[in-house]
Amino acid sequence: MRRNTETIRSIARDPATGIVTIIDQTQLPHRFVLVPLTSMAQAAHAIRAMLVRGAPLIGATAAYGVALAMRADPSDGALAGSLDVLGRTRPTAVNLMWAFARMRDALARLSPSARPDAAMALADAIAEEDVALCRAMGAHGVALIDSIARRKAGRVNILTHCNAGALATVDIGTATAPIYAALDKGLDIHVWVDETRPRNQGASLTAFELLSAGVPHTVIPDNTGGHLMRQGLVDLVIVGTDRVAANGDVANKIGTYLKALAARDNGVPFYVALPSPTLDLTLASGDLIPIEERGGEEVSHMSGLTAQGTIETVRVVPDGSPVANFGFDVTPARLVTGLITERGVIAANRTALVAAFGDRESRAA
Amino acid sequence: MRRNTETIRSIARDPATGIVTIIDQTQLPHRFVLVPLTSMAQAAHAIRAMLVRGAPLIGATAAYGVALAMRADPSDGALAGSLDVLGRTRPTAVNLMWAFARMRDALARLSPSARPDAAMALADAIAEEDVALCRAMGAHGVALIDSIARRKAGRVNILTHCNAGALATVDIGTATAPIYAALDKGLDIHVWVDETRPRNQGASLTAFELLSAGVPHTVIPDNTGGHLMRQGLVDLVIVGTDRVAANGDVANKIGTYLKALAARDNGVPFYVALPSPTLDLTLASGDLIPIEERGGEEVSHMSGLTAQGTIETVRVVPDGSPVANFGFDVTPARLVTGLITERGVIAANRTALVAAFGDRESRAA
Question: The pTM is what?
Answer without folding.
Answer: 0.93
